Amino acid sequence: MTQSDETSASNVVYDIEEKPPLGEAIPLAFQHVLAMVLGNIAVPLIMASAIGLATGETTFLVQMALIVAGVASVIQAYPAGPVGAKLPIMMGTSFAFLGTLQLIADNAGLATIFGAALVGSLLQVFIGANYERFKPLFPPLVNGIVVMLIGLTLIPTGIDYAAGASSGPGAAGYASLMNLGVAALVFLVILALNQFFRGILRIASVFFGILLGYVVAVFLGMVDFAPVAQASWFAVPIPLKFGIAFDPGAIIAISAVYVIVAMETIGNISAIVSETGRNASNSQIRGGLLGDGVMSGIAAIFGAFPNTSFAQNVGLISFTGVASRFIVGIGGVILLIGGFIPKVGAIITTVPDPVLGGGTLILFAQIFTSGLNIIHREVSLTQRNTTIIAAAASLGLGVTFRPELVQNLPQVVQPLMGSGVVMGGFTALILNVLLPQSNPVDNSSETDVAATEVDD
Hints:
By secondary structure, the protein is mainly α.
């Protein structure tokens, strides 16, 4: 793997090019799958419910989400030509698009959504192919802020899962003692295994914690196996099953989200490589962006929503110190099997919300620390830069915790302005361009750490 001239100490157990024995690699791969699988299928389930699709069509959307995420994850780990970062990047259906997709669905339908997603993906491909031109817009300061905001804005989701209802506090049984007890068990087991044990028990602590929580949930009657019985044994992808249509307004709306997703991907790649004590190279970021764009375009053709790198899996790498792309490749294969054999995918989706909440809550917080690490390693904390961090965090977290702030804005921009990552990310990007590098309070010049990156 290409690395910068300057590296810092890392805590990785398995580096990017290392291959653990299969006895360790398989549970570590399942650990990655469990961390992201419900997030991956949540968007198709929400969209299917909003549109009123039949059960068979909903199942198809879920299967395609698994298959596309599997292929995309494998390609990020083992690139196809220039497409792919050659890094341990788990891919999945992006939540960033959800609000915009729902707006388009209300006015048009799935065909228009997939047409806009296909055309919009070309923008991310363009950014990836010309990354060197766009690179000044995405310095470590902006990337670090975006990664921190991803983690901070996901924590409420982790809390909702731990409380037993990903849909939020209004759901029945939210924060029941049973749900909180199971989530706490998983959380504490993961912490104990990670901090007091060594070897496979430590690096696969999330897998074993979720596994134990799942067994307990089965005995408590919290697991519904009906979806497994109802699922078929085999499924085949069908291109353009829902048709395709092109609407200029929908294309513009989704294209704007692709810009934000590009910022997330750059931040996630920076965080992954940072965990190994290196700086991400231009070729890694270029390939990662191309992987996002190309696979999102393919997803639109096969009835899946846009894909992107999953931040919770970045947190998993930081938490366990396992950065092997070989493991993520196996995780991609597991997703593929789950997509082509729906019964396998159905088993994975029976994991109750509290079990996943206990496992993912700490991973979401770990994403924040990954962004903090980027800032710590690569950014001089001048008065200018701390002001940008403060402004981005205040606006990003403001709309996250008080979404009512944007309720009077035009409906078309509410999904963008109401996203903490979008609001904070754009704030950081714009202020980084507009504010001078020196100011009357602090005339010291900032070291350009990014200059140490390798340009392949």
